[in-house]
Amino acid sequence: MTASQDTLSTVEPAPVVLVTGASSGIGRATAHRLADRGTRLVLAARSRPALEVVAEECRQRGADVLLVPTDVSDEAAVKALVQAAVERFGGLDACVHAAAVVAYGRFEDVPTAVFDQVIRTGVLGTANVSRSALQVFRSQRSGTLVIMGSLLGKISTPYMSSYVATKAAVESLGRVLTIEQRDLDNVHVCVVSPGSVATPVFRQAANYVGRYGRPPPPVVSAERVAVKIVERLDHPRSRTSVGIANPLMIFGFRALPGVFDLLVGPLMRVAGLSRTRVDPHAGNVLTPTHYAEPVRE
Ligand SMILES: NC(=O)c1ccc[n+]([C@@H]2O[C@H](COP(=O)([O-])OP(=O)(O)OC[C@H]3O[C@@H](n4cnc5c(N)ncnc54)[C@H](OP(=O)(O)O)[C@@H]3O)[C@@H](O)[C@H]2O)c1
What we know:
Number of domains: 1
CATH superfamily: NAD(P)-binding Rossmann-like Domain
CATH topology: Rossmann fold
Strand content: 15-25%
Structural class: alpha/beta
Helix content: 40-55%
Radius of gyration: 19 Å
Low-confidence stretches: 1-5
Bound molecules: NADP nicotinamide-adenine-dinucleotide phosphate
Number of helices: 10
Distance between the termini: 53 Å
């Protein structure tokens, strides 16, 4: 065997990463970044047409891509997704779980079906994806799970009750999973918790508050969050905050609850809701939009 053949035969295969919520925003930016590194990608979201657009973008960047339309709130579908990944690529190195939906509205104005689906997607979806991924990682004795938390899992804001409840649950679940994997040196669970990120989530959210939502400042880009996510795949760490004001907000919430509760309503109405009026609608909560949203808002 020549030296060059010998080198070729020992080249490590590219890692395999599953990304949920890959058709929009942070998931899509993460898929792009991983594709640039030649990662073998498994992309999931509910809408096949939207996923096909992102899969093509990733192939153009040189990635081998499997797309599997999946509703993360359906446990059987998530099991089939992870199984398809392992069958296609022979294993799974990491999973980035970015799928979520949002509903705006005073708690009692949000229809029960919409509230419940935000919870189902956020909480049960995270449990389904985490369970299937961790079962594979435990059997391989290696793998990294990145779960998207949020600043809103650590503080409370009005007009987003189902999302705030979801993210509080995700932050807690992520912490438990991190602790439970401590017996395996090469299995990691990382929760990445951004503040405001400029993605399409605000426009495609369900809305019963009369005005479109928007990300209150300071706002970071989806690409910036994707950089942090990929950093965690390279260097796992249990908790990562993205957003310069996050520690201040969390401090205010915990140390000055009376002041926080007084200010958060007016601040949300000024900074978190746009002036653009909108009729009540379920957005993408119950059904996907079926077109690929851009990475940015
Ligand atoms: N944007 C922010 O300010 C912000 C801040 C903190 C944390 N986060 C978190 O970051 C993650 C990504 O948010 P984003 O802003 O990028 O959202 P986004 O642009 O709205 O993208 C959401 C993605 O989730 C998918 N999805 C929704 N429901 C699904 C389901 N039941 N099953 C499978 N996929 C589903 C959507 O595709 P389909 O509709 O086709 O399914 C889409 O690909 C979320 O966990 C979010 O909570 C966002």
